[in-house]
């Protein structure tokens, strides 16, 4: 007689013999004796009463640094990053996975090991600091997932960077560029958008007439996701009036929108045509915009409301520089005869 009991599965082996298993969804399986065995019902009842749910854990990679990188790149935090930020992180992360220390277990890392990793980039402090930033994020993820109790990168100090990033355009350089490119040209429009909105090139190339809100320009920053409403400066308004009526403000000769990198390369040619030195970039005009606001007496919060900086540390560099100049001039005035 064949019994009809729940969770019983019959499996025929290669010799043709039927074997019985107690298999309940979410529980561990158990081999049962044959139905003709006097102990079958007792074994079945025992399995039915004692079955405990099997703890199902998501599959995760080996707990090495390389495995942690794969794990984090599948996380919600990584996928929530802006596309350009993900591309930058991915490039560095894939390079880290090629290194000899990538196969070390996450639990083996100590602050001294993190410092040794950064020491490999001592000639390029900015690159070292980028890796430190990413390692901090990775080990934070390791802590939150229970891979280790602490973050070994949090106690490691950043390398001192000699340079301050992109060179800030001076007023003389801005004036020389404007003298080369007349009002109504795409070159002049590019400068106006950069210096009168204080935005990154990745945001400037996406701006269009659809973003105008009366005397305001709405910006959704690609890097941070921040939404900004920026008053349109009269000089910018003049250039926007001459901009294309449809599509983005900045367009290629073929009428297409620029990519961020494509715009950078074209802007480099425009800068060279104005006989301005190498090193002056679109980002330098973003810094010039912050400098102008600081020189006008704007507070750090007011400047950040335009530039969209997530923290005030960067903005404070501009206000400190302006305050230093004002104090220095005031000090000299006091000792003039």
From TrEMBL:
Transmembrane segments: none annotated. GO terms for biological process: DNA integration; DNA recombination. Signal peptide: none annotated. InterPro entries: DNA_brk_join_enz (IPR011010), Integrase-like_cat_sf (IPR013762), Integrase_catalytic (IPR002104), Integrase_recombinase_N (IPR010998), Tyrosine_recombinase_XerCD (IPR050090). Keywords: DNA integration, DNA recombination, DNA-binding. One of its GO terms (molecular function) is DNA binding. The keyword Hydrolase does not apply. Coiled coil: none annotated. Residues 164-332 form the Tyr recombinase domain. Belongs to the 'phage' integrase family. PANTHER family: PHAGE INTEGRASE-RELATED, PROPHAGE INTEGRASE INTD-RELATED. This is Integrase/recombinase. It comes from Swaminathania salitolerans.
């Amino acid at each position: 007689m064949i019994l009809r009991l729940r969770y019983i599965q019959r499996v025929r082996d290669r010799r043709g013999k039927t074997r019985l298993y107690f298999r309940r969804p979410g529980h561990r399986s158990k081999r049962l004796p044959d139905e003709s065995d006097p102990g079958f019902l007792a074994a079945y009842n025992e399995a039915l009463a004692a079955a405990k749910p099997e703890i199902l854990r998501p599959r995760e990679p080996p707990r090495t640094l390389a495995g942690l990188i794969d794990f984090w790149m599948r996380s919600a935090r990584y996928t929530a990053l802006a596309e350009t930020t993900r591309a930058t992180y991915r490039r560095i992360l894939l390079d880290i996975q090629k290194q000899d220390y990538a196969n070390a277990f996450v639990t083996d890392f100590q602050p001294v090991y993190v410092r040794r990793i950064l020491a490999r980039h001592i000639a390029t402090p900015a690159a070292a600091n980028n890796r430190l930033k990413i390692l901090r994020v990775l080990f934070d993820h390791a802590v939150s997932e229970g891979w280790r109790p602490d973050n070994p990168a949090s106690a490691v100090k950043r390398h001192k960077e000699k340079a301050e990033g992109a060179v800030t355009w001076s007023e003389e350089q801005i004036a020389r560029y404007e003298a080369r490119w007349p009002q109504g040209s795409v070159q002049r429009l590019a400068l106006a958008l950069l210096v009168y909105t204080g935005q990154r090139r990745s945001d400037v190339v996406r701006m269009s007439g659809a973003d105008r809100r009366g005397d305001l320009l709405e910006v959704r920053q690609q890097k941070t996701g921040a939404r900004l409403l920026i008053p349109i400066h009269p000089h910018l308004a003049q250039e926007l009036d001459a901009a294309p009526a449809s599509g983005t403000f900045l367009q290629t000769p073929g009428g297409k929108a620029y990519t961020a990198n494509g715009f950078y390369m074209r802007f480099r040619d425009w800068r060279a045509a104005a006989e301005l030195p190498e090193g002056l970039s679109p980002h330098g005009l973003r810094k010039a915009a912050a400098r102008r606001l600081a020189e006008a007496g704007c507070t750090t919060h007011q400047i950040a409301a335009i530039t969209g900086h997530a923290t005030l540390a960067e903005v404070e560099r501009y206000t400190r520089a302006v305050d230093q100049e004002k104090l220095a001039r005031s000090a000299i005035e006091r000792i003039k005869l």
